[in-house]
C-alpha cells in the first residue's frame, strides 16, 4: 500500500453537474429548472418554512406552555478516575483542571462524578459532587469542598 494506490470509496465521488451547456448535455436551455415561475429565476431563494403565502405550519399550530430550557445550568462533568494523575495531598480546583487540559471549559460550574477509582487523598474543590464521588473522596481521607459560583 502506497500513497499513489489510495482511491476514494466507489461511488463517493461524482462529477459536478454542468448546466446550460447545450441540448446534447441533457441540461441545456432551461438548465433543469423547468419553464417559468419563481424557482426558474436567477437569484431565487426561499426562507425556511415558507409555504407560498399560505400561513406556515409553525404559525398555524397553537403555542402553549413554558420551557425552562433557556435557564438550564450547563455543568462540566469529570469522573473521579481522571483525578488519579494528581499526587496525594494536591488541592484540585477547576483552574488546575483547565490548565492540565482535563476539561475544556467550566461553563456554569464543575461537577465531580463517582465513576472510576481514586487511590490517593485529594482535596477536590468543585461546584457540585455526586453522592458517590464525595463518599469515595472522604473514604480515602480527602476533602470534597463545594465552591460557590460568583
Polypeptide structure, described:
The structure is a single chain. With 150 residues, the chain is of the alpha/beta class. It has a domain at 74-146: Ribosomal Protein L15, Chain: K, domain 2. The protein has three helices and six strands. The protein has helices at 57-60, 94-100, 131-139, and strands at residues 76-79, 91-92, 110-113, 123-126, 128-129, 143-146. Strands 1-3-5 form a three-stranded parallel sheet. The protein is elongated and about 80 Å long. The model has no long low-confidence stretch (mean pLDDT 93).
- By oligomeric state, this entry counts as single chain
Major beta sheet, specifics? Answer: 3 strands, parallel
Sequence of strands across the biggest β-sheet: 1-3-5
Question: What structural class is derived from the secondary structure elements?
Answer: alpha/beta
Helical region count? 3
- Count all strands and give the number: 6
Radius of gyration, in Å, reads 30 Å
CATH 2nd-level architecture of one domain: Ribosomal Protein L15, Chain: K, domain 2
Instruction: Quote the average pLDDT.
Output: 93
In CATH, the topology of one domain is named: Ribosomal Protein L15, Chain: K, domain 2
Task: Give the overall silhouette.
Answer: elongated
Helix content: 10-25%
Q: Give the N-to-C terminal Cα separation.
A: 57 Å
The first-level CATH class name of one domain? Alpha Beta
Strand content: 5-15%
Order of helices and strands: HEEHEEEHE
Low-confidence stretches: none
